[in-house]
């Protein structure tokens, strides 16, 4: 369904106003005020803050899809995985809402945001393809799932935000070493 010209302009003003806010503290009333539209107009386009965050993250999801396609073209499975995870981490650090879009699947309404749902499905397909290829090549543990890998990237993102930007490389290296093939038996840890 295409929007009327005035509705499309309102939507773009809302998105522009939202981009000037920290997405972790986004409030629809503030966005409406800054966009110069009524709160009802914001709710018609974005019924929840999460729906607005999804709209803001569409470009980042596209860039993450591009990163997975670049990884697929890289003939070296380990190098492809490293490059993809570095790109994913950088995008999540640039777009503070991307993690919520990737992790909080239960809150997504595909009717409201079919574009985001489709883009996210492509991103997860990319995670799966890059990880599976690395696992088949024996350079990554067989027991790591794409969802676990994505959550690990989110964990590194949090650690970098808590620390310093310079921590990014070492923390990503630790993640990569941790998912590498097991070279020795590690004693099982008792359940918490």
Automatic annotation (TrEMBL):
UniProt keyword annotation of Transcription present: yes
Entry keyword set: DNA-binding, Transcription, Transcription regulation
Gene3D superfamilies: Tetracycline Repressor, domain 2 (1.10.357.10)
SUPFAM superfamilies assigned: Homeodomain-like (SSF46689), Tetracyclin repressor-like, C-terminal domain (SSF48498)
One GO molecular-function entry: transcription cis-regulatory region binding
Domain HTH tetR-type: 4-64
InterPro entries from the UniProt entry: Homeodomain-like_sf, HTH-type_TetR-like_transc_reg, HTH_TetR, Tet_transcr_reg_TetR-rel_C_sf, TetR_SbtR-like_C
Pfam families: TetR_C_43, TetR_N
DNA-binding region as annotated in the record: 27-46
Listed name of the protein: Regulatory protein, tetR family
UniProt source species: Microbacterium pygmaeum
């Amino acid at each position: 369904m295409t929007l009327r010209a005035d509705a499309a302009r309102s939507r773009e003003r809302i998105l522009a106003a939202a981009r000037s806010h920290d997405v972790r503290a986004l409030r629809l009333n503030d966005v409406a005020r800054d966009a110069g539209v009524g709160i009802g107009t914001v709710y018609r386009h974005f019924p929840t803050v999460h729906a607005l965050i999804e709209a803001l993250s569409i470009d980042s999801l596209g860039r993450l899809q591009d990163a997975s396609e670049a990884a697929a073209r890289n003939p070296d499975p380990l190098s492809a995985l490293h490059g993809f995870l570095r790109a994913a981490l950088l995008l999540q650090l640039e777009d503070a809402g991307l993690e919520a879009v990737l992790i909080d699947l239960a809150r997504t309404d595909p009717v409201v945001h079919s574009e985001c749902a489709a883009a996210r499905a492509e991103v997860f397909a990319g995670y799966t393809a890059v990880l599976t290829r690395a696992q088949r090549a024996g350079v990554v543990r067989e027991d790591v799932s794409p969802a676990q890998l994505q959550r690990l990237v989110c964990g590194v993102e949090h650690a970098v935000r808590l620390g310093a930007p310079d921590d990014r490389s070492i923390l990503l290296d630790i993640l990569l070493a941790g998912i590498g093939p097991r070279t020795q038996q590690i004693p099982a840890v008792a359940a918490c």
